C-alpha cells in the first residue's frame, strides 16, 4: 500500500511538472512560427543575393513570394473561417501551428534554388542559373 501511494505521488508530481497552460502552448506555437518565418526570410534573402545577376528570375521570384503570402493568408482563412472566439482558447496555437506548417513547406520549395536538383534533371528551369544567360 505504501509503495502504491508513493508511486501515485511521484507520477502525479511528474505529470504536473510536464504540463503546460494553454497560454504557454499558444506562446510556444507563436514563437515556433516566428522562427520558421525567420528561416524562410533568411533563405529568401540568400536566393536574392545569389541570383542577383538574373534580373528576370529575381523579378518573378518577388512576384511569386508576394502571391505566396496572399495564398498563405487565404489558406489560413479557409482553415479557420469563423471568428477566432469560435475556436476557443486553442485557436492561437492552432493558427500558429498551421502558419508554421505552410511556412516550412514554402521554405523547402525555395531551398531548391540554393541546393539545386539531382544531376541529370533536365527540367531545372532557373535553378542554378545565377546569371540569366
UniProtKB/TrEMBL annotation:
Q: Which UniProt keywords apply?
A: Signal
Task: Quote the Pfam families the UniProt record gives.
Answer: LprI
Lysozyme inhibitor LprI-like N-terminal domain: residues covered: 20-110
According to the UniProt entry, where is the signal peptide?
A: 1-17
Q: What protein does this entry describe?
A: Lysozyme inhibitor LprI-like N-terminal domain-containing protein
Amino acid at each position: 500500500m505504501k509503495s502504491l501511494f508513493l508511486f501515485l505521488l511521484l507520477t502525479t508530481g511528474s505529470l504536473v511538472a510536464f504540463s503546460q497552460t494553454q497560454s504557454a502552448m499558444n506562446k510556444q506555437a507563436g514563437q515556433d512560427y516566428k522562427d520558421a518565418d525567420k528561416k524562410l526570410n533568411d533563405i529568401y534573402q540568400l536566393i536574392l543575393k545569389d541570383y542577383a545577376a538574373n534580373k528576370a528570375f529575381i523579378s518573378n521570384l518577388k512576384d511569386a513570394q508576394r502571391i505566396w503570402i496572399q495564398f498563405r493568408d487565404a489558406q489560413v482563412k479557409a482553415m479557420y473561417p469563423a471568428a477566432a472566439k469560435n475556436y476557443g482558447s486553442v485557436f492561437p496555437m492552432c493558427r500558429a501551428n498551421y502558419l508554421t506548417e505552410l511556412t516550412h513547406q514554402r521554405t523547402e520549395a525555395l531551398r531548391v534554388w540554393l541546393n539545386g536538383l539531382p544531376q541529370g534533371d533536365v527540367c531545372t528551369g532557373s535553378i542554378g542559373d545565377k546569371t540569366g544567360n
